[in-house]
Amino acid sequence: MGLWLLNNLNTAGLALVMVGGVVVLSLAACLVARRIFPQLTHGVTNDVSRTVLELFGAIYGIVLAFVIVTLWTELEQVQTVVTSEATDLAVISRNAHSFPDEVQKKLDVAIGGYIHAVVDDAWPLMREGKNSLSATSGKLEALYGVFQGYNPKSASEQTFYNESVERLNDVTAQRRIRILAATQRLPVLLQVLTYGGAVVVMLVTLLYGVENLKVQLLFVGTIALLVGLSLTLVLVLDYPFAGEVSVSPNPFMEGQLRKYWGS
């Protein structure tokens, strides 16, 4: 459900749905609670509710901060991995000028095939949270095949050959990390603490009675707004390749690699 929302709504629309949903449900629950337990409006549970809310709020705030920082760090790491993968391919492309024309042409074809497979085939799968290993496996093997079929003739060629093979090995490692990042989600325990904790906090909030209905709705709505915004941020960061706030494939289409896109 969350992945569908990310891929079909912009950030503003997603926030409206998530935050609006949490606020509306919380306000509706508040009205129901006042009707079922009218004695709450007299503040009979306020002392206990205040203590519990402060305790749960502090714990939930720490958990939420940890989750958001972790997801944001992972998003930055994935962006770095993608940039490094594209950079290594660009270096291989430049090094190809040191090889005979026939080998250079083969490398250009293989590199072009690989980056097109990454952007055109793998990226849509990663955007859906699916494994994209098979989308680029054949193209990566073709790139290795060019180096395996070539024997450098001079010391200069050997130097660039060794560096290119090393860079290609780095591409393989970065590709694996990128694919895993697209399929991995927040651990189940942290999901329970994040989303389940939000429910607990809102339920405790309903137990804090205020005689004035408007004041209580404002109180509950404000907390629901903060909780909704936090959950929206967690959802956005949990899918690094989906939505507007996501890792971009642009590094594979810029600089030295731009020539493989016919522009």
Major sheet: size, sense and barrel closure?
Answer: none
Helix-strand string = HHHHHHHH
Multimer state: single chain
Mean pLDDT across the residues is 89
Shape: rod-shaped
Describe the structure.
The mean pLDDT is 89. The two termini are 38 Å apart. The protein is 76% helix and 0% strand. With 263 residues, the chain is mainly alpha-helical. The chain has helices spanning 2-8, 11-36, 46-95, 101-127, 133-148, 155-183, 188-206, 213-238. Helix 4 runs antiparallel to helix 5 (133-148). The protein contains eight helices and no strands.
Layout: helices, strands, pairs:
Elements: H1 2-8, H2 11-36, H3 46-95, H4 101-127, H5 133-148, H6 155-183, H7 188-206, H8 213-238
Helix pairs in contact: 2-8, 3-4, 3-6, 3-7, 3-8, 4-5, 5-6, 7-8
Quick description:
With 263 residues, the chain is mainly alpha-helical. The chain has 8 helices and no strands.
Question: Descriptors for this entry?
Answer:
263 residues, mainly alpha
